[in-house]
Amino acid sequence: MTADMTRLTAVQMAEALRVGEITSVDLVRAHLDRIDAVDGGEAGLNAFLHVSRDEALATAEEVDAIRAAGGAEAEALHPLAGVPIAIKDLIVTVGQPTTAGSKMLEDWMSPYDATVVERIRAAKLPILGKTNLDEFAMGSSTEHSAYGVTRNPWDTDRIPGGSGGGSAAAVAAFEAPLALGTDTGGSIRQPGAVTGTVGTKPTYGSVSRYGAIAMASSLDQIGPVARTTEDAALLHELIAGHDPKDSTSLPDEVPAFGEAARTTDVSGLRIGVIKQLQGEGYQDGVLARFQESLDALREAGAEIVEVDCPSFEHALSAYYLIMPSEASSNLARFDGVRYGARVEPEDGPLTIERVMGATRAAGFGDEVKRRIILGTYALSAGYYDAYYGSAQKVRTLIQRDFAAAFEQADVLISPTAPTVAFPLGEKLDDPLAMYLNDVATIPANLAGIPGISVPGGLSDGLPVGIQFLAPAREDARAYRAAGALETLLTADAEPLWAQAPELSTAAAQTAGE
C-alpha cells in the first residue's frame, strides 16, 4: 500500500485523502521512504538538496486532524491539502536552506517565504524539501550544481534536464507528486521533456516572482512540475494571482486551468506548427513522436497549419546576450559583504574590492563566471548598443512573429527539446552544444507567453516532450491542447509517467546505505 501511494497522480492522491482512503501522514511517509531509498548515495538520483522531514509530517498531521474533525474548516481545505510537494532550491523558504545550488549560499536560511511558498503553506501542502538545480539556474542539465549532479530516473547515466532537473527527477521517480520550478529559457519544460513529466511556464507576471532568486528578471517565471496536465493546472491555479510585492505581477483573475486541462475536445482548434522548430538538429525519434502527435490531434478534429517565425533563428543568440546581461547585474549582490559566503584574501590589505574578488572566485562555479563575464562585457561602454541593445531589438521581432502566428493559429506546437536526454558529461566541455538544448523553449521566455511540455512518447526508450505555446494571458488554451493530446496518447496505452522504470536494485541499495 505504501509503495502504491507514491504511484498515483496528485488528483488521485487528493481524492483518496478526501474520502479517507489514506491519510496525509501515511502519504508523506511513503514519499520520505522513497526519497531515502533512491535519492542518496553515490548511485542515487540526488534530486533533493534538503529533506524537511519534520515539517512535512507536521503539516500532514495538521491536515489529517482537520479532516477528522470535520465541519467548516474541513470543508474549506484546499483540494490539494495534504498532497506533498517539493520546491526548487532557487525559491526562498523559511526554515529550510536556500542555496541556489551554489557554494555562495551554502546553508543560507531565508528570513522570509516566497509568495508561492506562502500560498502552498496556506493551502497546507506538506513541503518535502528543496530540489537540486544548476547553480543559480544557469544550465540545461543539472550538472552545474555545486552539490553534485542529478540523475535521470529513466537512465541514471543521463541528465534530467536543467536547470530544474531536481524537481523533474523527483516527480518522475515518485519522490514527490508535485514540484515547483523556475523557467528562464526552458528550465521547467526541457527537464519535463527528458524525464517524461509535465512542466508549465506561465505567462510572465501571472505567478509572483517575489522570493525567487533572480537570474534574468525579465525572463524568469515560477511554474508547476507534475505527472499530468491536470495536476500541473491545479497547482498553477494555487500559485497564480496578483502579488503587490512583485512589481511585474499582473492584476488578472486566475482562470480555471484545471477545467481547461480536463477538456478533451479539440475540434476546430487551430494548431500552428512552427516551421523553425523542427528539422535540422532534431533527432529522428523526436520528430517521429512529434508527427504522431500532430496526426492524433488532426484525427481528433484539430486544424493543423504551418506558421513561419523567421526571427526565431536568432532567438538563441539574443537570449544568450540578454540573460547573461541581466544575470551579471542580479548576481552583483553576492559580494561577500552583506550575506552569503565571505572569503578574505590570504595576504595584502583587506578591502571591499579584494574581499569581493576572493569571495566570487571561490563561491561561483565556472558556468556562472562564464555568464557574468559575458553579460558584463555586453553591458560595457561601447558595446551596449552593439550587443545588448541589438538583442532587445531581436526580442521585439520575436514578439511580432508570435503575434502574427497567433493570428493564424489558436496555439502553437513544437518538440520541447531537439533530443532526448544525453549522457552525463557529454556536453560539459562544449557550452554552445549545451545551450542548443533550449532552442525550442527560449522564444516563449523572450515574448513572455505561456508554454507547457507534455510527454509525447519514447525514442530509444527515453521520453520525448511536446510543447504547446499560447498567447500571453491565454494559459488555459495551452492546457486545453495539452490535456487533449495527453488523453489521445493514453487512450490505449499506459501514461508515460507510469512507465518510468524502477531504479536498479544496486542503485537503490547504494542510495539507502
Question: Mind explaining what this structure looks like?
Answer:
By secondary structure, the chain is an alpha/beta fold. The protein has one domain: Amidase signature (AS) domain (Amidase signature (AS) enzymes), CATH 3.90.1300.10. 40% of the residues lie in helices and 12% in strands. It has an eleven-stranded mixed sheet with strand order 1-3-2-4-6-5-10-11-9-7-8, with helices on both faces. Helix 12 crosses helix 14 and helix 12 packs across helix 15. The protein is globular. The relative contact order is 0.14.
Helical/strand content category: alpha/beta
Number of domains: 1
Helix content: 40-55%
Query: Order of SSEs, N→C?
Result: HHHEHHEHEHEHEEHHEHEHHHHEHHEEHH
The CATH class: Alpha Beta
Q: What's the pLDDT, averaged over the residues? A: 95
Within CATH, the superfamily carries the name Amidase signature (AS) domain
Low-confidence stretches: 505-513
Note the overall shape: globular
The counted number of beta strands is 11
How would you classify the quaternary structure?
single chain
Residue fraction in strands: 5-15%
Q: Note the main sheet.
A: 11 strands, mixed
